[in-house]
Amino acid sequence: PPPPPPSFFYTPTRPYAILSGLVGSEMCIRDSHSALENVYALAEADEIKHINLIRDYDPSIPEINGDENLFIQALLNIVKNAQQAVEGTQDAFIEIKSRIEYGKPINGIIHQTICCIEIRDNGPGIPEHLHDQVFFPMVSVKENGSGLGLTIAQDIIRIHGGSIFFNSNPGDTVFAIYIPIKIENKESKIA
Question: SS3 letters for the chain?
């Protein structure tokens, strides 16, 4: 059999027990930019003056199917980690970026249209020895961290049919979230 994918990618066999009660949650059509703006406003309200928060949104992204509050929580968990990671970094920044991608696989299924959200920071990066464990519960770089933020974020993204992965080097850490966009074929009728 093929080797299992690295643990920092979502694997369909990994149970998501933390949020298992939310699987039947009402999933409504939501505007991804509204969620991103809420996350931006909450991050900006933290009054961490030395961090430059950057927004770079693709205006062509259609609505996505999901629970906006859960989606905001997932993004906020990642942004909060980034805020803590860049503390003490000179010219610290966090960028929240959205883009459309086409014909990409998510969890082994190729989707026609995908919303990609990236959260990038220029902190010291995630130690390499934690790369395979970063989404596991109780794993944290922070001395007083609970180690649940990324686990919960991954579970929420999975509930939305998406995946999350990261790439981390000193001075450049990116968490990328991929959510499939279901575009309905709408025929226009001519009278």
Answer: CCCCCCCCCCCCCCCCHHHHHHCCCCCEEECHHHHHHHHHHHHHCCCCCCCEEEEECCCCCCCEEECHHHHHHHHHHHHHHHHHHCCCCCCCEEEEEEEEEEEEEECCEEEEEEEEEEEEECCCCCCHHHCCCCCCCCCCCCCCCCCCHHHHHHHHHHHCCCEEEEEEECCEEEEEEEEECCCCCCCCCCC
Query: What global pTM score does this model have?
Result: 0.78
> What integer is the mean pLDDT of 115-140?
85
pLDDT of residue 43: 86
**The pLDDT of residue 18:** 43
Instruction: Using alpha carbons only, give the angle 66, 106, 21 rounded to the nearest 5 degrees.
Output: 40
